[in-house]
UniProtKB/TrEMBL annotation:
Residues 238-336 form the HTH araC/xylS-type domain. Transmembrane segments: none annotated. It comes from Paenibacillus catalpae. This is Ligand-binding sensor domain-containing protein. PANTHER family: ARAC-FAMILY TRANSCRIPTIONAL REGULATOR, HTH-TYPE TRANSCRIPTIONAL ACTIVATOR RHAS. Keywords: DNA-binding, Transcription, Transcription regulation. Gene3D superfamilies: Homeodomain-like. One of its GO terms (molecular function) is DNA-binding transcription factor activity. InterPro entries: Homeodomain-like_sf, HTH_AraC, HTH_AraC-typ_CS, PocR_dom, Tscrpt_reg_AraC-type_HTH. It comes from the Bacteria.
Amino acid sequence: MNARYDLKQIMDIDKWHKLQDSMSLVTKMAIITVDYKGIPVSKHSECQAFCREVRKDSTLSSYCQKCDARGGLEAVRSNKPYIYQCHFQILDIAIPIVVDDQYIGAVMAGQVKLRDPDVPIEQIVTRPPNVETDKKFKALQEEYQSLPVLSFEEVTRIADMLFHLCNYIVEEAIRKSDMLQMYRDSLSLEHPAAAPMQTINSKYEHIQALQSELSNTLIEKKLKKSSSVYQSGNSLLQPSFDYIYRHKHENADLKEMAVLCHVSPSYFSRIFTKETGENFSVFVPHLKIGWAKELLETTELSVAQISDELGFADAGYFIKTFKKFESLTPNAYRKIYRDKA
């Protein structure tokens, strides 16, 4: 099987590692990305201790590789995520990346146990009974019991999210890569010396755009209560609210929001305050602190991580802003909330 695109060439793998780590953290699944040949192009994010030890064993790891191969083939065949059980009855998902009807790679996720034992899921590779391997399995019982447990509904939702998200990101990367190549070719003809610097700048902006898109998607997954966008009574302001809510990881600028709403900054500020009862400079950080409270309540993210997720300049400024609105620090808020629960 040949592929027109090489994931290593169109993606900044170091950046992709960070995004993959974030996806793994949110989904509670181990994740690795492979090319169309099945060769890993990324490291393994959040690989579980049990699977890590099993894959070190020469006999058992061969069965793991058979599971990966079968899972990948089934996903390509159906052109959708394929959920299956490995030879240890651990749940895995093969998520194909298909662009222009060409299979260019896959995201392999899983290493979780299913909470619903009655759901029929194919075990694609079986391992014959063996005294030695049974002994190794018993020695890893503690690691096996510590595997994350998810419901089948959670697994299917995660599979669907990863399928659409990863394919979209790769499609955009390819589209921008093709445009970049065309631009580079034209520059090399007209301005040979300028091409390298222009290319570097364009690739940097392209990676930033991808990271921005995925960052906001991951924040949305963590924020269950605050997913709906504020519906403004003044339709003129709605584009600004749409932007603020869909770019939670950014710092919205009043002038940029005014341009988005096609009004002057002074007029935007006036009608925004009338609509919300707060100045723009107060409303946005107040809103972000509301999101931060939800992250403190429902996730194990550190204060620094939450600060980064919501686009604060640094953790110190985040803590200062949080204390301004809530009269206590983020850590104190989390402790009080957990104690009440």
